[in-house]
Amino acid sequence: MDDIAPPKPKSNLGRKRGVEQRPKVLSIATKAKYAAKRVIKTQNDKIKKAQQLIHKAKDKKESVLKTDSALKGTATAVMTDREVEKLPPNVQNHIEENVVFRPNKGPQTEFLASSEREVFYGGARGGGKSYAMLVDPLRYCDKSYHRALLLRRSMPELRDMINHSQRLYGKAFPGAKWREQEKEWRFPSGARIEFGYAENLTDVLRYQGQSYTWIGIDELPQYPTPEIYNFLRSSLRSVDPEIPVFMRATGNPGNVGSLWVKEMFVDPSEPNIAFDVNVDTIVGKKKITRRFIPAKLQDNPYLMQTDDYLIMLSSLPEVQRKQFLEGDWSAFENSAFPEFSITTHVVQPFDVPRNWLRFRTCDWGYASAACVLWIAVDFDNNFWIYREYYTKRVTADIFARQVLEKEHDEYIRYGILDSSTWARRGDAGPSIAETMIHEGCKWRPSDRSPRSRIAGKLALHKQLSLDKDTHQPKLKVFSNCTNLIRTLPMLPVDRNNPEDVDTDAEDHAYDALRYGVMSRSMHPHSYAANRYMEKETFKPADRIFGY
Question: What is the Cα–Cα distance from 403 to 373, expressed in whole angstroms?
Answer without folding.
Answer: 10
